[in-house]
């Protein structure tokens, strides 16, 4: 008997979800909120239960943002601050891994900086093997190099792992012409091209990540994951958020 899902079957086989560090805390706060981690884990586990192969790249800005720490300081060098930021992503990754496994979702935490006691090293073939076995793969420490954002790491891993879409989780329901939290007249876009994003300097992801997605024709979906069920709606092809690509949004 075919399983019925509340939002319909998935239109994707393999996706990458990019979570900023702010996803792990309450708005305006820092650190880790157990409630927010649980919210992420519930949605991600339901996606995995549909048979969708799910990789998640986590940021660490809720704990430490390397670029901010080093700004205007001669005490901590910029490269060192970036490495500190990378280790912050591991804290979020560990929290998410435990939350997912608490829901019965088999998970693997992979890092580009070796931390053998708590995570596996990122090896592309190993990550692909985990995905094919139905395990959620949580990717921490970005690319493992300083001066590279976790957005760019998400674009890179998306291409490496052959995902069909890079899902950029935010707290607003898509890409706007201006910050909708500051400008009530900001216009939301349903679809954008990579060129429009770069030309208008829209705050989707950093320009290196956008350029990488353009070069590799990797679609980006920017959506509000704080709304319960939105990750499932997105993978089911419902018209939510803003699509960035060179075609129309995928349909059921």
UniProtKB/TrEMBL annotation:
Catalyzes the reversible phosphorylation of UMP to UDP. The keyword Transferase applies. Pathway: Pyrimidine metabolism; CTP biosynthesis via de novo pathway; UDP from UMP (UMPK route): step 1/1. Homohexamer. The gene is pyrH. Inhibited by UTP. InterPro entries: AceGlu_kinase-like_sf, Asp/Glu/Uridylate_kinase, Uridylate_kinase, Uridylate_kinase_bac. It comes from Singulisphaera acidiphila (strain ATCC BAA-1392 / DSM 18658 / VKM B-2454 / MOB10). This is Uridylate kinase. One of its GO terms (cellular component) is cytoplasm.
């Amino acid at each position: 008997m075919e399983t019925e899902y509340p939002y319909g079957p998935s239109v994707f086989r393999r996706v990458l979800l990019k979570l900023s560090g702010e996803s792990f805390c309450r708005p305006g706060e820092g650190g880790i909120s157990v409630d927010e981690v649980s919210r992420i884990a519930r949605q991600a586990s339901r996606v995995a239960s549909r048979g969708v192969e799910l990789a998640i790249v986590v940021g660490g800005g809720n704990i430490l943002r390397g670029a901010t720490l080093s700004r205007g300081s001669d005490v901590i060098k910029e490269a060192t601050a970036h490495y500190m930021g990378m280790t912050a992503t591991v804290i979020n990754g560990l929290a998410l891994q435990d939350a997912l496994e608490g829901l019965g979702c088999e998970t693997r935490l992979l890092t580009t900086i070796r931390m053998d006691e708590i995570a596996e090293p990122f090896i592309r073939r190993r990550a692909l093997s985990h995905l094919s076995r139905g395990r959620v793969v949580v990717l921490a420490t970005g690319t493992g190099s300083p001066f590279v954002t976790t957005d760019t790491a998400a674009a890179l891993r998306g291409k490496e792992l052959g995902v069909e879409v890079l899902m950029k989780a935010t707290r607003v329901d898509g890409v706007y012409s201006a910050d909708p939290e500051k400008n009530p007249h900001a216009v939301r876009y349903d679809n954008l091209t990579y060129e429009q994003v770069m030309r208008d300097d829209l705050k989707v992801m950093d320009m290196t990540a956008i350029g990488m997605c353009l070069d590799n024709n990797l679609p980006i979906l920017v959506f509000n994951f704080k709304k319960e069920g939105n990750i499932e709606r997105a993978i089911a092809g419902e018209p939510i958020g803003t699509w960035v690509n060179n075609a129309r949004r995928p349909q059921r």
